[in-house]
Amino acid sequence: MPSASAPYTRKYAHTQSRGHEGLVTCGYCGRQVPRYKTFIKHRGFRITDPIILQAVDRSQMHFFSQKMYVCPSCARSHNIVERGRSVRKKHLNR
Ligand SMILES: [Zn+2]
């Protein structure tokens, strides 16, 4: 059993097996982070109205959502991922 369990699985899937990995800029703090560590968030609005969805060409849909990379620390503070529950902090009972 691991001492601390996160409610999500943090998977660091490397983009390259060797060599320099691409750095991306975090969309919140602007920090340069390796891409395999980031969380991908889609910024923009989502069309839920079916009438508008029919009128809009599907190939134009990428204009509405922008891909954004979020570093692990910003992902925690912006509630993209849940905070890991550490065993040491269990007594705090938040
Ligand atoms: Zn960040």
Highlighted features:
94 residues, alpha+beta, 4 strands, two-stranded antiparallel ribbon, binds zinc ion, two-stranded antiparallel sheet
Describe this structure in words.
The chain has 94 residues and is an alpha+beta fold. The protein has one domain. Helix content is 13%, strand content 19%. The strands form 2 sheets. The chain has a two-stranded antiparallel sheet. It has a two-stranded antiparallel ribbon with strand order 3-4. The longest helix has 6 residues, at 50-55. Bound molecules: zinc ion (ZN). Zinc ion binds at residues 26, 28-29, 31, 71, 73-74.
Looking at the structure, what is the overall shape? Answer: extended
The end-to-end distance, rounded to whole angstroms, is 23 Å
Mean pLDDT rating: 74
Quaternary structure: single chain
What's the gist of this structure?
The protein is built from two helices and four strands.
Task: Give me the secondary-structure topology.
Blueprint: E1 23-25, E2 32-34, E3 39-44, H1 50-55, E4 65-70, H2 72-77
Antiparallel strand pairs: 1-2, 3-4
The structure holds zinc ion.
Residues 26, 28-29, 31, 71, 73-74 line the site of zinc ion.
